[in-house]
Amino acid sequence: MSITLNLKLVSLLLLSIIPSFDKAENEGFNIFINQFPEVSLPIQFHGQIIESETSVKLDPKISENFIKGSQYHYVYGKIPSNDKFVGVITLGVANTLLPFLHTFSLNGELVSSEQISMGTCGAGMCVSCIEVTEISSNLDIYFADSLTVYDCNDDGEEVSNKKDKYVTYVEGNVLDDGYILLLEEKKNKL
Fold it and tell me: Are the C-beta atoms of residues 157 and 150 closer than 8 Å to each other?
């Protein structure tokens, strides 16, 4: 009988401790989420995003449990969500800053994380490029790079009127449960 009583006491003790772990995890998630200012939809990024003096890096001590490699991300904003998930946008460090969308369950579990930029525009001769990323108010996602490639000499000067123009793009959306669905990349000649 004393073994049964001890088991019941141990069970009660464990049950009283477990919610405090959940509470601590939720408090950590709330601290993480509160790094992000609320932003309204639609959101559009046009051109390359350049780091500025006002760019705020994610705090890795707070963020690493939620976004791996957080030391290479800047804060952008928290998007309007529903009662099943919360979404944030970070700007990942590359030659320029690339937008990433991360969604989490309300208790802080990562649901989905995706780069929402083609990231193919860059410095180069004989090429001009325009980048765009859009998230609509109903969470449809579109991102594209429009490239113009032309004949040039070693100094980067055009040598003919021949130009190839094309757009590479991806469409998708955020589902009701927070999963980010991106369709296959497409390329169209213009």
Answer: no
* Nearest in space to 116 (alpha carbons), one of 54, 169, 187, 159: 169
d(CA 150, CA 9): 77
Question: Is the pLDDT reported for residue 123 higher than 60?
Answer: yes
Single-letter amino acid, residue 148: T
Amino acid code (one letter) for 39: V
3-class SS at 25?
Answer: helix
CB 182 within 8 A of CB 172: yes
Residue with tokens 């083609």: 118
Q: Return the SS3 of 81.
A: coil
Residue 29 burial (10 A CB sphere; 0-12, 13-18, 19+): buried
- Distance of alpha carbon 90 from its chain centroid, rounded? 5
Confidence band for 32, pLDDT divided at 50, 70 and 90: very high
Give the containing element (helix H, strand E) for 114: strand 110-115
**Length of the chain (residues):** 190
- Among 95, 148, 84, which Cα is nearest to 117's? 95
